[in-house]
Amino acid sequence: MEGPRSAIAAQLIDLEAALRQLDLWSDTPPSQEALSSEQPFAMDSLEFEEWLQFIFLPTLYEVLGSGGALPERCAIAPMAEETVGKRKLPTEALIATLRELDRLITESD
Questions:
Q1: Which member of 15, 20, 37, 76 lies 3.0 to 4.6 Å from 25 by CB, making a disulfide possible if both were Cys?
Q2: Is residue 92 within a helix (H) or strand (E), and if so which, with residue range?
Q3: What pTM, to 2 d.p., does this model score?
Q4: Per-residue pLDDT tens digits for 3-16
Q5: Do 89 and 40 contact (CB within 8 A), yes or no?
Q6: CA dihedral 16, 22, 23, 24 (to 10 degrees)
């Protein structure tokens, strides 16, 4: 894994660290039904941080590991600002990590 994919992988590690630091990381996965939501960000069944942990991170790790195609565009930071960013938590590092991921993925073509 080289170049942009390597940088994306590093940001995914930073994302997990930011979630853990804010105590937003869960040791218990949501139900299969909750994970099967077809809504954007599974917002009808998951908290945003659960979507990041149980859908976004595993999906991107799989894409990176298999050499699959990355999304053409990524804009997750705005959703983070609207969800976890409005909580009384120091979410600046989390949102900055997501902004960088958005940039790296969008510019990776």
A1: 20
A2: helix 92-106
A3: 0.93
A4: 899 999 999 999 99
A5: no
A6: -60
Q: Note the pLDDT tens digit of each residue in 96-107.
A: 999 999 999 999
For 60, other C-beta atoms within 10 Å of its C-beta total 21
Neighbour-count burial of 70, counting CB atoms closer than 10 A to its CB (0-12 exposed, 13-18 middle, 19+ buried): middle
Identify which of 40, 39, 13 has the alpha carbon closest to the alpha carbon of residue 100: 13
User: What b/e string do you get for 7-46 counting C-beta neighbours within 10 Å, with b at 16 or more?
Assistant: bbbebbebbeebbeebebeeeeebeeebeebeeebbeebb
Round to whole Å and give the CA distance between 56 and 15.
Answer: 11
In the structure encoding, which two tokens stand for residue 67, read together?
A: 């050499």
Residue count (the chain): 109
Domain boundaries, the chain: 3-25+45-106
The domain defined by 3-25+45-106 folds into: de novo design (two linked rop proteins) (1.20.1440)
